Structures are given as C-alpha cells and as structure tokens.
Amino acid sequence: MKKNIYYSLLISAMVSVSVAEETRQVDKHEHGVGELNIAIEGNAIDFEFFIPGADIVGFEYEAKTESDIALVNAALEKFGNFDNIFSLPESSNCNLVNSEIGVNQDDDHDDHDDHDDHDEHDDHDDHDEHDDHDDHDDHDEEAHNEFVAHYSFNCENIKEIDRISFPYFTNFPNSGELEVQFVSEKGSTGFEVEGDEPFIDLKGKI
Ligand SMILES: [Zn+2]
Question: What was the pLDDT predicted at 26?
Fold first, then answer.
C-alpha cells in the first residue's frame, strides 16, 4: 500500500498544495541527487523540482514531532520564495504565474497493519500505548519522501536567459547535486549541477 501525503502549509495564496496526479516512485530516488526539469515553450519557462527529504531536512520519515514539523515547514517556506532556489537574469523579465510546493511522502506500510490507528489517534485513552512508537523505528528508516516544487513563469525576453543560478545549494546545507533536464524548441540537454559551480549556462540553447 503506497500513500502520498502532502503536508499542507499555506504560506501565501501563491502557494497551493495538491495531490500528485501520477504515482511517483519516491523510494527509487537517490539521496544526494535532486531532479530538476526545466521546459521552455514560447514565452513560458517551467521548473519542476523533485528533491529527496534527505537533501533538504536530513530525514524522510513523516514529520511528527514539533521540531521535525518545524524543519519541514521552514523548508517549505524557503521553497515558497523561488529566489531561495534559483535565479533568472533580470533582463529576461520573467514573472511568476504559478507555483505549487509540497512534500510527497511515500511510506512502505505493508507490514504495519497497526499503522492506521497510530496515525488517526482513534484511541485517545490509549496514551500508554505510545511505547509502541518504538516499533515504528525500522519503519521510519524505510520511509522516503521528496520535496516537490513547481514554478511557472512568463517572460518578456525569454531569450535573455543565458544562465540560471541556484542559491538552493547555499540555502540547503544538506543538498547534494541537481540533475537538470532542460528542454526547449532547440532540443534537450542535461546538466549535473553542484554547489561549487551552482549555475547552468544556457547560451544558444533557447
Ligand atoms: Zn529516500
């Protein structure tokens, strides 16, 4: 049984959270490797990030303690302002038209039948039962999640985008690399971006 759970955090009206349309195999990801798809069509540029929780907050189990929830919410808030993640040349005059930020939680619950009442807290009187939280430790180690962020822009001078840089690497100290797939009318190309050279060069590619 696979579940997708999006933490919802209403940072602003700009940010909406939705359930993934397709089932993404979150547990197939590689820790230390975030994925970024960039697509340019006409005057529009879209960014789609899938980044393991390990690279963002350092864990991938479902946040339940106040401090873990605070970490996740702080990270979501950073994603809420794309300037924290990437930057486009000012001369391109790109305006954000839509964004969606969330966490795609994928736990393997198959062998944890009791997980539901753990979640739902149906038995409010059974507080002593919280010792069985310990049983979930190995479950937590198997849990995986991803931060998912989509941003769409319309640009007045899209051909002015000759470089995209990524403050992402400095804003998330746990970050590894970003594997970028870029596609425009001129074709597609890939980049591996790391913190020591946190940008991609798009001259002649748009
Ligand atoms: Zn993982």
Answer: 81
